[in-house]
Specification:
The complex is a heterodimer of chains A (219) and B (168).
Chain A lengths: L2 H11 L6 H9 L1 H17 L11 H13 L7 H11 L1 H9 L5 H17 L8 H4 L4 H22 L1 H27 L4 H27 L2
Helix pairs in contact in A: 2-3, 4-10, 4-11, 5-6, 5-11, 7-9, 9-10, 9-11, 10-11
Chain B lengths: L4 H18 L9 H24 L2 H4 L26 H9 L3 H12 L4 H8 L3 H41 L1
Helix pairs in contact in B: 1-2, 2-6, 4-7, 5-7, 6-7
Classes of the chains: A mainly alpha (219), B mainly alpha (168).
Chain lengths: 219, 168
């Protein structure tokens, strides 16, 4: 047996013992013997290695959902959409941010803008989460657009890589918002369309918040 | 497979988007986990191949050709044994330097314990090809580990020489 044949045997044995011919060759060829010993050592040490498992951040699932809803692959049932608004919708999402210091500024910005616009329109300033829902969606969109511009501008200077990812994801979510807005304009009484639009705004706000948190914590 | 968290997150997103888009094509001929694993590997490999074409450098171009080539070996030359000069940390570093295809097969078989028939299903290749890629991966790791050991030996000699010169 030649060395090339021995290596071909090593390639195929898959943990089985060497054949008599291969063993005889290894006994008289230091090079092949050393290679076989080294490969066995590598395989033994590899069993002790582990591949760390990392949970993806929540924004990944938010972005996946936004894209799938935009493509029409998934739809939120009307009953589930109403439950989302009552239990874990736009408002709960805002209060969840408060627990994360890096997002307080974003939350404060939303509340201040909402309160300011509401005062200008002679609507009582929102002091409860439920009042925020009463603000016409155009104000929510304007608030989000201002925060988007501010966030993109900040990240362009401080973290261009995150900014590039954010801009790509914002394009997806903004397209989805445009689709939902069109649906609400065409059928203003359609509760499902409004729920989709609220959900889209929530996704955009979470995206902006996640980008800010990512750039500030480096996570 | 990609070694960087931001890229891994982007590819995770893309893999799950592909999952939902292609779920209707899952025929149950393999386990769902195998099907999803294969889909994910394809997403990553496509990204890595595009990146290699767009950003190839001389260093990347001189990596062993995974399809037709592989690590070269001088048959008949006596080799030093790795035993005594390699540990898990050295091996982990060497694994991170493997080309993506080699690394995938090595991690699936030697670290995670998949059999070659399972790897063939995940990677979309034959069992023979899986064995061949694994052997090339291990051989390349052997080269990398020997290089690292020689480098450490050179550094140790250099340090010893510097100490002698300082004492003199």
């Amino acid at each position: 047996m030649q060395c090339q044949e021995f290596e071909a045997v090593l390639e195929q044995i898959d943990g089985r013992p060497l054949s008599a011919d291969a063993a005889a060759h290894a006994a008289q060829c230091r090079s092949c013997s050393a290679m076989a010993a080294d490969l066995e050592l590598i395989q033994t040490l590899a069993h002790e290695l582990t591949i760390p498992e990392t949970e993806p951040p929540d924004r990944i699932w938010t972005q996946v959902r936004a894209q799938l809803e935009q493509e029409g692959i998934i739809r939120v049932p009307a009953t589930d959409a109403r439950a989302e608004k009552q239990g874990a919708g736009w408002f709960a999402g805002i209060f969840a941010w408060v627990r994360r210091p890096a997002l307080v500024a974003t939350y404060a910005g939303l509340i201040v803008l909402a309160a300011g616009l509401a005062w200008e329109k002679s609507i009582p300033a929102p002091d409860t989460a439920s009042d925020i829902a009463a603000i016409p969606s155009i104000h929510t969109q304007d608030n989000l657009n201002q925060l988007e511009a501010q966030t993109v501008s900040d990240l362009q200077a401080s973290n261009p890589e995150i900014n590039a990812t954010l801009r790509r994801d914002l394009k997806i979510v903004n397209n989805f918002i445009a689709v939902c807005q069109k649906a609400v304009r065409e059928q203003p009484q359609d509760e499902t369309a409004r729920q989709y639009l609220y959900g889209a705004y929530q996704q955009k706000s979470e995206l902006l918040a996640a980008a800010l948190a990512h750039s500030r914590t480096g996570e | 497979m990609v070694g960087r968290t931001p890229e891994a997150e982007d590819l995770t997103q893309e893999a799950f988007l592909q999952l939902f888009r292609k779920i209707a094509t899952f025929r149950g001929e393999s386990a769902f986990s195998t099907w999803l694993h294969r889909l994910t590997v394809n997403v990553v490999l496509m990204k890595l191949r595009k990146k290699t074409v767009a950003e190839s450098s001389l260093e990347e171009a001189t990596e062993p050709d995974e399809e037709s080539g592989g690590p070269r070996r001088d048959f008949g030359a006596p080799d030093n044994l790795l035993s005594g000069s390699v540990d898990r940390i050295n091996l982990q570093r060497a694994v991170e330097q493997l080309p993506p295809g080699y690394r995938s097969v090595f991690e699936l078989h030697d670290i995670q314990g998949y059999e070659h028939n399972e790897i063939a299903g995940i990677m979309g290749c034959s069992i023979g090809n899986s064995k061949s890629q694994l052997h090339k991966a291990r051989t390349r790791l052997r080269e990398l580990l020997h290089e690292a050991a020689r480098q450490r030996a050179r550094e140790a000699r250099q340090d010893a020489k510097s100490e002698v010169e300082q004492d003199g």
